């Protein structure tokens, strides 16, 4: 995996991944892009949500939508790394089995999501919850 971060102006940067995709990052003064810690939070949510959807699809669950609500808790110090991240998966579908959703979230947390496992190993408390919405 490769990437490059290039300073644009003031505290605005463009991150370019080896895949060719890019994102604007900013230090928070002008709100021109994502803050780097927001990217970490969103990356963890994206990694875990990918796992949950993939696992539920393989289990032939009739999933219509899924999103992950995230809350990152950081101290008011410098540096201010995440102390805790709370993730709630909201899974919508028809006839979803709660045991399958619970298992998908557990497998993501314990086996598949590299981002959350990396942060957990670094001492970040990661809380996983889910909610099922029948349609």
UniProtKB/TrEMBL annotation:
InterPro entries reported in the protein's UniProt record: KH_dom-like_a/b, OsmC/Ohr_fam, OsmC/Ohrsf
Pfam families reported in the protein's UniProt record: OsmC
Gene3D superfamilies: 2.20.25.10, 3.30.300.20
NCBIfam families recorded: PRK10738.1 (NF008009)
Protein name: OsmC family protein
Taxonomic source organism: Microbulbifer okhotskensis
């Amino acid at each position: 995996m490769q990437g490059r971060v290039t300073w644009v102006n003031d505290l605005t940067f463009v991150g370019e991944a080896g895949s060719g995709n890019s994102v604007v990052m900013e230090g928070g003064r002008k709100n021109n892009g994502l803050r780097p810690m927001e990217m970490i939070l969103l990356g963890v949510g994206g990694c875990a949500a990918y796992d949950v959807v993939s696992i539920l699809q393989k289990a032939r669950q009739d999933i219509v939508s899924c999103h992950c609500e995230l809350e990152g808790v950081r101290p008011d110090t410098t540096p201010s790394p995440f102390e805790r991240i709370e993730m709630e998966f909201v899974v919508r579908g028809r006839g979803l089995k709660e045991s399958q959703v619970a298992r998908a979230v557990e497998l993501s947390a314990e086996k598949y999501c590299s981002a959350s496992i990396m942060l957990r190993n670094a001492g970040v408390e990661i809380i996983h919850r889910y909610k099922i919405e029948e349609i």
